[in-house]
Amino acid sequence: MTVRLLPSGRRAVLVETGDVLGFQAAVSRLGLDGVEELVPAARTLLVRFDPSVTDAGRLGEVLRHVSPVDSVAAEAGEVVVPVVYDGEDLADVAAETGLSVAALISRHTAGTYVSAFCGFAPGFAYLTGSDPALHVSRRSSPRTRIPAGSVAIAGEYSAVYPSASPGGWRLLGRTDVPVWDVERDPPNLLPPGTRVRFTAVPS
Length: 203
Hints:
It contains five helices and 13 strands. By secondary structure, it is an alpha+beta fold. The strands form four sheets. Strands 1-2-4-3 form a four-stranded antiparallel β-sheet, with helices on one face.
């Protein structure tokens, strides 16, 4: 797999790759001297290092020859999220995709999702694995407040809002599962690599 390496200050290298989680797993397995942190995003992996131990040149020579492995999702375990499918955008998304509401719910619960990366807010996990039929755009006008626990989709991702916040994702339903809890160790229920399944429950 071809990767592109970009400098990112004195202490990091940004890796562009088509398989971020697999690349992260492979780098983790290598246990490279001086690597302090791996931060995944949608299409990149930030590799932070200690410049007193290694440098971008030496690290880059290794990273160019890394082959992704399929291990992160299996190691992180699986979380089942029960969802009441009564979201404000449920009917509109069904109409846009040409599906009935029941078929839309069936397709959303049929997928096995993986937390690809976290961003936007603490505990906001971008979950890959959506049925391509459910790839819809964000709302043209974001809501000023989306309740915590809202289950939503946008583009190729699904997500559970960890806290009340503004947002433009399409709301399909809600869950009582706290995906972010500062009293829990660790607070994030869905760190990168976690497998997620949604199940429909009655209101």
